[in-house]
């Protein structure tokens, strides 16, 4: 297989590859540091990576990929029980970390190797096969202990090349983001993506709107973020002309990991003249769809299937949804070179995740427009509500609620109802906690925008919605607390 990172061997060595705050590495320096690390770990089975938002994390993963050794990114915010499970399950030979990083006691039995970003060594000439495991990324574990998705090298190459096609991504692009590096979004797209293109990435360390404005006004061309980040941007824009100028000058603004509320889409577009585009992926599939750079940035959709990705919507009985009418809901199933190969040590879970003819069951519910655009309405387990004979996606109700001036945040779930089967429950963080909008007012607001059967029957008020590290609302926590 050809190299994942041609620019490490063939590109201009003085071009900036990585920048984290005041620290940076050129392609020449990265090739030396990653090459030295690859020589040190060559022949290892797997290596864990303490994935702090630092230069050493990027060097560690790049070095592991050059060595053909699977990297297991660890979330530094994980609890000891979760870390213990991941280490026991993946059995890494050693852990790579930045010098001085404090590791929890649960990792003390692992051999530790401190990554030296200033080391020099030769880049290995032999390239592993495209089926060689590149990463083992653990899922969030909402239905039990996290499962390790084994992501092969072909999946990295396929996804990043498909995104290059969709986003017209080139070596001239400079990406800015502040995403964590233990997950697909921040690590694969946000670090490995620029390196595969031969471009540059500037990591903020910690997301701030000031950092975004500074980097975009200083030559960065692309911004990757999650909805929480774009919400903060939308809130800051009215009083920050430098931020508005920065976003207006960006070539591409991309949101992922969860649905970006339409209200935030529109506020950003109104203030900057630029529209955020969305894409859709999962740990197990990397990227499946995206709005294209040369396509219509339609709020509330995740665009069309990427090159090489087959996508279909399937009814509960397994038949394919025939109508691209923007209304008929089905589960998304995908096939393509972007998929993982297995859940580590879990042949049962791997078998259950695929159909007999090789389609991966995503568990995400969507509708498809007549022109092929995909609009996700929620997760099958938590966001598909069957009420009064209708199949209703929570996402569109959440978007409608967020259009109400009295609503700061909103989540929608279903709960058992003797008459309807399930009733719609709205969880609301009010804009003014002292004067929350009445339940009847919110129900009428939704009924007028969508349809009467989609109105919430119950409204519950919260100070904040529970979210994970990627900004996704943890609906199981809401339902458990009900």
From TrEMBL:
Residues 396-472 form the AMP-binding enzyme C-terminal domain. InterPro entries: AMP-bd_C, AMP-bd_C_sf, AMP-binding_CS, AMP-dep_synth/lig_dom, ANL_N_sf. PROSITE patterns: AMP_BINDING. GO terms for biological process: fatty acid metabolic process. Residues 9-344 form the AMP-dependent synthetase/ligase domain. CDD domains: MCS. GO terms for molecular function: medium-chain fatty acid-CoA ligase activity. Belongs to the ATP-dependent AMP-binding enzyme family. This is Acyl-CoA synthetase.
């Amino acid at each position: 297989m050809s190299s994942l990172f041609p620019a490490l061997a063939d590109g201009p060595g003085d071009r900036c590859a990585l920048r984290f705050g005041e620290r940076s590495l050129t392609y020449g320096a990265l090739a030396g540091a990653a090459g030295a690390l690859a020589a040190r770990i060559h022949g290892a089975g797997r290596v864990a990576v303490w994935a702090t938002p630092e230069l050493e994390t990027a060097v560690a993963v790049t070095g592991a990929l050059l060595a053909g050794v699977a990297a297991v990114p660890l979330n530094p915010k994980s609890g000891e029980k979760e870390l213990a499970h991941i280490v026991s399950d993946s059995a890494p030979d050693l852990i790579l970390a930045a010098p001085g990083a404090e590791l929890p006691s649960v990792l003390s039995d692992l051999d530790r190797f401190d990554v030296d970003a200033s080391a020099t060594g030769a880049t290995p000439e032999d390239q592993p096969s495209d089926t060689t495991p590149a990463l083992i990324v653990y899922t969030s574990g909402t239905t039990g202990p996290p499962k390790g998705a084994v992501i092969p090298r072909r999946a990295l190459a396929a996804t990043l090349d498909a995104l290059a096609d969709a986003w017209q991504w080139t070596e001239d692009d400079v990406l800015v983001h502040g995403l964590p590096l233990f997950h697909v979004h921040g690590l694969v797209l946000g670090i490995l993506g620029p390196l595969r293109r031969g471009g540059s990435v500037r990591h903020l360390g910690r997301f701030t709107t000031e950092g975004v404005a500074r980097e975009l006004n200083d030559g960065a061309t692309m911004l990757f973020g999650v909805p929480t980040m774009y919400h903060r941007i939308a809130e800051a824009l009215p009083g920050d002309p430098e931020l508005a100028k920065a976003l207006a000058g960006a070539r591409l603004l991309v949101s992922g990991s969860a649905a970006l509320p339409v209200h935030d889409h529109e506020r950003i577009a109104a203030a900057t003249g630029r529209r955020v585009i969305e894409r859709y992926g999962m740990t197990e599939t990397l990227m499946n769809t995206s709005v294209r750079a040369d396509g219509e940035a339609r709020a509330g959709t995740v665009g069309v299937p990427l090159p090489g990705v087959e996508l279909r919507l399937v009814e509960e009985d397994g038949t394919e949804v025939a109508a691209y009418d923007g209304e008929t809901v089905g589960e998304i199933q995908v096939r393509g070179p972007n998929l993982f190969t297995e859940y580590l040590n879990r042949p049962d879970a791997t078998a259950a995740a695929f159909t007999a003819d090789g389609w991966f069951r995503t568990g995400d519910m969507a509708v498809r427009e007549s022109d092929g655009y995909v609009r996700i309405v929620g997760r099958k387990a938590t966001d598909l509500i069957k009420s009064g004979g209708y199949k209703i996606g929570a996402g569109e109700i959440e978007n409608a609620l967020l259009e109400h001036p009295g609503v700061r945040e909103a989540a929608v779930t279903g709960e058992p109802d003797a008459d309807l089967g399930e009733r719609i429950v709205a969880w609301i963080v009010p804009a003014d906690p002292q004067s929350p909008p009445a339940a009847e007012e919110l129900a009428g607001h939704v009924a007028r925008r969508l349809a009467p059967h989609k109105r919430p029957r119950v409204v519950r008020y919260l100070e904040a919605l529970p979210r994970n590290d990627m900004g996704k609302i943890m609906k199981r926590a809401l339902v458990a607390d009900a």
